[in-house]
Write a structure and sequence with these properties.
The complex is a heterodimer of chains A (169) and B (414).
Chain A (H helix, E strand, L loop, with lengths): L8 H11 L3 E5 L2 E6 L4 H10 L4 E9 L10 E8 L6 E8 L5 E3 L8 H12 L2 E3 L29 H4 L9
Parallel strand pairs in A: 2-5, 6-7
Antiparallel strand pairs in A: 1-2, 3-4, 4-5
Chain B lengths: L15 H6 L6 E5 L11 E7 L2 E8 L7 H5 L8 H5 L6 H16 L5 H29 L3 H22 L8 E2 L2 E2 L5 H25 L3 H7 L7 H6 L4 H5 L7 H4 L20 H23 L20 H6 L1 H11 L11 E8 L2 E9 L5 E7 L1 H7 L1 H5 L4 H11 L3 H5 L1
The chains are: A alpha/beta (169), B mainly alpha (414).
Chain lengths: 169, 414
């Protein structure tokens, strides 16, 4: 029997009060709040004040080949509260050609590396991030490999890496 | 392999005195890793040293990146479990359980009581073996070799149990959607019972060796202090967060599997230093053993996999050969263009892995492969905390802090 998470109606009510009605979806007992990109920082900062003190994860999905998707990138912010154990997923959708969203690093330090990873693997710019460098791929890597138009076996980048010799290390 | 160039700048939020010292040329830059015995795995630290004191540290990761999340989009839900083995390879069983917990959440599968119970037992054994290694490595890095060998001997016993259970010692790939690949046999139960009886003595010996050992306490107490606020803000979870006083444990807060049925405590400390993390891990091993001891005597009878009508777990050989439903179900599940039905939806399933909250955010698109298989690795957030933990301590404390955070590069980079 799956355990039910604590209800979050009280938080959603305050969000509606402040930002107007936002779309929500629920699946398997988890609620997602869909926030338009210009408001994302304000809503997340409001949610932090409402008790969501733990940023569990920041990630992204590339909906390029997904049936019925309207925008290409869907950012995922998984929030949780360490006191009430509530959980909330915040979705922010951005689109090509310049996917860009405001960084939440000022709110949660945890976002630092998580946003760097999203930038690295999906190529989404986080404005206001203090140190937006690649996290897992090498610095000279040109592509964003978790995008759906990037092939599983790569585009031969490995062969083009410079060979570092003992004299030039 | 390409070596990334040395970082151009350190993080701008380093303390003010560090910024002033940056222009001084007596500071020394030390490359710690990626190949260094005390990093245990392939990770790199660029340390800025003033004599022996660490002024700043810059962690680098990615040396072991193998695109697990990309591979997850090309393997079926059952195949991907082999990849999860290789994430946190010191407790692969916990990753198996976490992966299929998330998949079953997406599919909406209710496990049988027997499966819930035996997965709980195995997940707790995995936690014990993980904590044995991480605490043993802290001991090893601070000079307590005997302690490490005591810990590793018991890990061997747990490997033996896993080998008896599923034939593999290390990369187990034991879980399946809706069940497990091998049910408990009487021999497995007997081995776990023996382990439950013999392990407390080793745990006592280990505590006697190290918990009040003057050298060890001096090396770890007050080193790498993480406050509660920093732990929450930095997204720490698991023993690292609990050693800083965050009372969050998904086994209690969002009970999954059979954890609701067992009596156990969450182990917390308030100091937040390396010693507190060591103590929390030691205490958690005793609590895990308590869960195993309760569960092993109360394994529910009945089927371990979900029934044929759910069409997710393979039926038994007997069902395949003697019933038409079994034959059809086996055929459908084995054919690459059939499989089971996956909803077009997204869900996040998290478990309390030995290292912290290990969750998978899955996007299903109706096919038998995940459209997106995001893994939320606890190590990444812990490794990001490393610079603030090490600032001001000496070079020899680097290994103590690194060991107590239990950074596993395979999980870090995926």
């Amino acid at each position: 029997m799956p355990h039910d998470l604590p209800a979050i109606d009280n938080v959603l009510a305050t969000v509606t009060e402040q930002f107007g009605p936002l779309e929500t979806t629920a699946f398997r007992g988890q609620t997602s709040l869909i926030v338009p990109e210009p408001q994302s920082f304000e809503v997340l900062s409001h949610l932090k004040e409402q008790g969501f003190d733990l940023l569990v994860d920041v990630s992204c999905v590339d909906y390029l080949e997904y049936r019925g998707a309207k925008q290409r990138y869907g950012l995922i912010y998984l929030l949780a509260s360490t006191t009430t154990n509530q959980r909330l997923t915040v979705r922010v959708f951005v689109d090509d050609p310049e996917p860009r969203v405001r960084s939440v690093e000022p709110l949660w330090r945890a976002a630092d590396w998580l946003e760097r990873e999203v930038w690295d693997l999906f190529g989404i710019q986080f404005t206001g991030h203090p140190d937006l460098r690649r996290l897992v791929m090498p610095e000279e890597f040109a592509a964003h490999p978790l995008r759906k138009d990037y092939p599983l076996q790569g585009r031969g980048e490995r062969h083009n890496f410079p060979v570092i010799t003992r004299d030039h290390s | 392999m390409s070596i990334a160039p040395a970082p151009r700048s350190f993080r701008s939020d380093a303390p003010a005195e560090a910024a002033a010292a940056r222009s001084e040329d007596y500071l020394w830059t030390l490359n710690f890793g990626p190949q260094h015995p005390a990093t245990h795995t392939t990770l790199r630290l660029v340390l800025k040293l003033d004599g022996e004191r660490v002024v700043d540290a810059m962690p680098e990761m990615g040396y072991l990146h193998s695109g697990f999340e990309k591979i997850g989009e090309h393997l079926t839900y059952n195949q991907y479990v082999t990849v999860t083995d290789r994430m946190n390879y010191i407790s692969p069983m916990a990753n198996n359980v976490a992966w299929h917990h998330a998949v079953e959440k997406l599919l909406g599968i209710d496990l049988t009581p027997r499966c819930r119970s035996i997965r709980t037992i195995i997940a707790e054994l995995a936690r014990i073996s993980d904590h044995l290694l991480s605490n043993g490595a802290v001991g090893l890095d601070t000079g307590a070799f005997t302690f490490f060998l005591y810990a590793f001997y018991q890990r061997e016993v747990i490997y033996d149990i896993f080998e008896t259970l599923c034939g593999a010692r290390f990369t187990n790939s034991w879980t399946r959607v809706g069940g497990v690949s091998h049910d408990f046999t009487p021999l497995v139960i007997e081995k776990i019972r023996t382990f439950v009886k013999t392990f407390p003595k080793t745990l006592d010996d280990m505590e006697r060796l190290l918990t009040r050992n003057r050298i060890f306490v001096d090396r770890t107490k007050g080193v790498g202090v993480l406050s509660k606020e920093e732990a929450i803000n930095g997204g720490a979870s698991g023993p690292v967060a609990r050693a800083s006083g965050v009372t969050r444990d998904l086994r209690k807060d969002e009970p999954y599997l059979a954890y609701e049925d067992f009596d156990f405590q969450i182990c917390c400390a308030s100091a937040g230093d390396c010693y507190a993390r060591y103590l929390v891990r030691m205490a958690e091993m005793r609590e895990s053993l308590k869960i195993v001891a309760q569960a092993i005597e109360n394994i529910p009878a009945g089927q371990v996999n979900v029934g044929i009508d759910q069409r997710t777990a393979l039926p038994t050989k007997q069902q395949v050969y003697s019933t038409i439903e079994g034959t059809i179900s086996h055929f459908e599940l084995s054919m690459s263009n059939r499989g089971f039905e996956v909803p077009c939806g997204e869900s996040y399933g998290a478990t309390e892995a030995p290292n912290g909250e290990l969750g998978f955010y899955l996007v299903g698109d109706g096919s038998d492969r995940a459209y997106r298989a995001r893994c939320r690795p606890p190590s990444v957030l812990h490794f990001a905390l490393f610079p603030q933990l090490i600032r001001g301590h000496t070079l020899s404390d680097v290994v103590a802090v690194l060991g107590s955070l239990n950074i596993i590069a395979a999980e870090l980079d995926r």
